[in-house]
Amino acid sequence: MMDVSVKPEGTPKFIRSRGLKFPYDVRVINSKRRTLLHKDAYELKESEAVLSQIKADDRVIELGAGMGYMSTLMAKRLKVAEIHAFEANPAMIPYIRSVHEANGVTGVTLHNALLGDTAGEVTFYVRGDFVASSMEDNLGDRHGGVIARETVPVRPVSEVFAKIKPTALVCDIEGAEQHLLPLMDLSGLRLVILELHPQVFGQAGTEAVFRLMSKAGLTYFPKASHGKVVTFKRGW
Q1: Is 0.85 topped by the overall pTM?
Q2: Which CATH class is domain 43-120+149-234?
């Protein structure tokens, strides 16, 4: 249930969802997100997959940290000790940190970066609705329009995976998975939870993701999959 707590003057209000606290910043929590948080339904399919499949001893890479919901859920509900959360949007980083602080989260390393083939930089377009920001600059006035242009570092995915040695990947990157997944060394992963975006890359892109996972020894796991959120496991 939602609790918009009225605190003494000078302290923030919070919305509670799944026992977690989220500072009530209207730039992040619009009316739709507020309703979903209220119903414990924010990122429902991904949350259920994560809660049923991630283990406390996993080393998790999360791509697309968003508002810090999933990293906080894993850290607090599942007691995952090592999470690396990557978020491209610089405007979201202070909010994610505030969520982690409000919930006493430890063990999460937050990275304001994208992963790619080689090191570099990209332009990121921050919109009035922070969560809708992206590398696309041609959305007109949708989502509050572009309010800032930021330069975001790109880190080589091969180096990141070699250093962290993840056992689980949680990924929601708005269609970029089609191009990023083939660059990854998936051999050390026991689990992938992925939100597909067929509206971006179509049937061919969806089929390519499934072929890639199968080639890496990761098999579609229907019990923890629902709609566009798909789970792949090794040796189940």
Answers
A1: yes
A2: alpha beta
